[in-house]
Request: fold
Amino acid sequence: MIEFISQPWHWSVSGIMILVVVFLLKILGERFGISTSFQTMCSVGGGGKLAQYFNYDWKKQSWLLWMVLGTIIGGYIATQFLASPEPVQISQSTIEDLSALGVSAPSGSLIPEEVFNFDQLMTGRGLIIMILGGFLIGFGTRWANGCTSGHAISGLANLQLTSLIAVVGFFIGGLLMTHLLFPLIF
Reply:
């Protein structure tokens, strides 16, 4: 059974599972999105005393905290017990794109270790990128009134125009980062 679970699955399985989750949340009158769980955590921690934004009945959103906990536990189980021992297969075009940016291809992992490692993080540039990037992600999530998963999965499934605009903005931002800023930074 473990061997069956740890093998690569067809992409449609993920799509069907996302569909089931969105459908169940729609029936229950809830919306999917991880960023709302951060608001809930701040409210649980007493953030309502500091900012009116966090002053609401967080118990109605407590299911989000269980979802986040389940995501963390599921990720741990998947990486510790279900990970394939085979190296990650990366397409030749991705390897060529990374090479054009001056980054060597990851050696069997998902990310190039020469860019994403603790040595890079502890440099001045690495700390600035992490702090500035974290701020921009948090600010953008609040400004867009949700994160990429919330808008792309739940918002588009509910045919919300604001989610379509946000998703288009996310893609434009990703393309700008990849093709304009990434080469300048690295």
